What does this fold into?
Amino acid sequence: MEYRMNVFTTGPGEVWAYLSPRNDTVSSNGLEYAIPIDDQPPQVVNVTEATGADDTAMNKQWERNTSDNVNRTVTRHVITSPGVHTVTFWMADPTVVLRKLVVDTGDLRESYLGPPESFRFG
It folds into this structure.
């Protein structure tokens, strides 16, 4: 999936992915997705490793993810110019379910399940 966004600043930024909590249903190394911004190399995220949630041992992080009904992971990027950019979300495993992407270019306030959707122009 591709999302166009308009940013007003340059420098480091983060893309937070809010995913439905899922168990690894295929025999692999965990649930994976990838995110590039524009033509940057995609950053591959292993959700199982990134969150520390263990559905076999049902550890505390797994309990938190299931009670909140979300897996929240982050990738870090550098935005080189203000203006329109494209964030792409690549699902590497068939059970990854994206609920929301939040792009933080600075001053993102802490909130329970992320900020509301930004106003769309056009």
